[in-house]
Amino acid sequence: MKELNEKQLIEILRKELKLPAKEKKKAVNEGYTVQTQTYRLPTELLSEKNKASHQKIMEQHAVALNWIASNLDAVNRDEVENSNNSKFRGLKIDEVYNLNASFLHSMFFENISDVNSKITIDSLAYMKLARDFGDFDAWQKDFIACALSSRSGWAVTVYNSFLGKYMNVVCDLHGSNIPFSSTPVIVLDCWEHSYYKDYMSDAKRYIYAMMKELDWNVIESRFERTEKIAKVMK
Ligand SMILES: [Fe+2]
After folding, report:
1. pLDDT tens per residue, the chain (234 residues)?
2. Ligand 1 centre and the CA of 174: distance in Å?
3. What is the pTM of this model?
4. Which fold has domain 124-233?
């Protein structure tokens, strides 16, 4: 059987999909840029030095992501021959690494450092966590276990639309073990850089400190949004 070249394969696919024979060239590339916010955290459970260096780490991920996005615009897809090595593959792997790092850090900074932290039993967050974990304390215990299990990564409470319930996830680095079809509602950074300056290797003390100051107002609004998504995804 005669081997088809890439051009011929694309032509066949376009025909099968009932697309016009030739695609018009796009005038503009569709790159993107992300911007970071500066977070002023009132908590005294983290030092100012720690807060400043952590903010910088988040900003570096956003700078890297923007650089990757502009390079992806220009990288030659025709050079990809296999899964071993290519500029394109390197950029695609680094893209999601830095995208998740930027997103998770913003979610984390937004949901910590409420010095008047309080959750009420009639809140959506409390009721949904109690429904899916048995009770609120069971969610908390499971979440702390996830945080302690994470290897330079994150503990995240997500709504998983495939399961139709909230679950806790142990994420290593910025992307390993995140289930598809998930919307994060509670995010805790468990990388060493988030606690070492203040707690040395005592991750447990850091985790308990952060749990005391979760911003349940921010989390409540995430639950409200997520419940709307849950209805659509049913
Ligand atoms: Fe971090």
Report:
1. 667 877 788 888 888 888 877 766 555 556 899 999 999 999 999 999 999 999 999 999 999 999 999 999 999 999 999 999 999 999 999 999 999 999 999 999 999 999 999 999 999 999 999 999 999 999 999 999 999 999 999 999 999 999 999 999 999 999 999 999 999 999 999 999 999 999 999 999 999 999 999 999 999 999 999 999 999 988
2. 9
3. 0.90
4. minor pseudopilin epsh fold (3.55.40)
- Tokens 């290593």 found at: 172
Domain ranges of the chain: 124-233
Ligand 1 centre distance from Cα of residue 27 (Å): 38
Distance 179 CA to ligand 1 centre (A): 20
- One-letter identity of residue 57: I
Query: Ligand 1 centroid to 48 CA: how many Å?
Result: 15
Distance 144 CA to ligand 1 centre (A): 17
Ligand 1 midpoint to CA 55 (Å): 8
Question: Which own/partner contact pairs does 165-169 have at CB distance under 8 Å and 24+ positions apart?
Answer: 165/132, 166/128, 166/129, 166/132, 166/133, 166/139, 167/132, 168/139, 168/142, 168/143
